[in-house]
# Entry
Amino acid sequence: ALRLCDAETAYVDLAWEDDWAASPLARVNPLLQVPTLILPDGEVMTESAAMLLRLAESYPHTNLAPPVDASERARFLNVLVILVAAVYPTFTYGDIPTRFVEGDAAAGEKLRRATDARREQLYRGLNTAAETPFFLGSRMSAIDLYLWRMVDWRPRRAWFDTHAPRLAAIADRVGELPAARAARARSPDV
# Structure
């Protein structure tokens, strides 16, 4: 998104193995959330959807979000919130379930299976709702950027190709953009 905006940007990379509590991140974001965006006025943002909405307002030419008066604005907001409030939590609770059911490996495995199943259900619903060539039709938006990255997460790309082919096609289309290729080259494992 920052590349699409052509915004002047400085990146600070953190390795997953780093002690983030002792990192530069802790000084600006005590919640230790990634990504963290520091705006030119010093305001710190930690939620990706909020960042994308702010960028959409500041760089309307990017089409990160439909204009407020556009007919697809309500649909955009609804799907954006589904991604961050329904899909994302399945990773929060399912990736390391022992954080929530400490000492009960069987319960942790059940939680992982349940969150994986819920995520797949959500993706199937989004696939049905998706238009082409982008989620909202001819207009690319931040939703498409999310999908571009999320098809590489569980349940992984092969699942999307079979069970959510519209979402996979949208991810492919976004991946062809020069800004996406540049972002992927900078962080190939993300």
Summary: The longest strand covers residues 37-38.
